[in-house]
Predict the structure.
Amino acid sequence: MARIALATCYDKNNFGSMLQAWATEAAVRALGHDVVTIDKSGLSGDIGRGRRSYYMEHLFDAEFYRAKLGFVGHRVRQRLNREFGSEMARRYRSFDRFAKARFRMSPRFNSLAELGEWTRGLDTVVVGSDQLWPPVNIAGGYYTLSFVEGPCRKVSYATSFGVSELPERYSRGSRPRDTISRLYRWIGGSPCLSR
């Protein structure tokens, strides 16, 4: 029985992310492996540094921020429309209850270095979900599995970029190319891999 940790998007309060993360954990467990989902709640400092750097590089990129307008509008609506905000808060609580009841979580780590040290005792770390490798997440360093150390294998399962083209700095070198070893779901992103 292999010891496997999952780097999934279990902490996003939407049905797609939550169910994908839960189904991945359940499927790996059904194969007879000892599986946990990595608790990334203490990693926001390390991940955030890389993500902030990416956002700063795009500070004056109007197209980049135009793509975020839907998300921002949703957040503003939650604040201004009390009924909608209350309904979203109820929904978030439901997702939290589901996650607490369904996921088997790893210990909480306070840095990617601490998490990396822990991975030395594992056989494999699997990253999996749709659109975990857009450039901002690559910059964050978590979903690329750059923290994995030692003999532990890195596996990508059904992970995509969420963009049709990667900026040059992310399409050269080891990130995310060294993390790709299994299924690549979103075939539209294949030009990103061929460069």
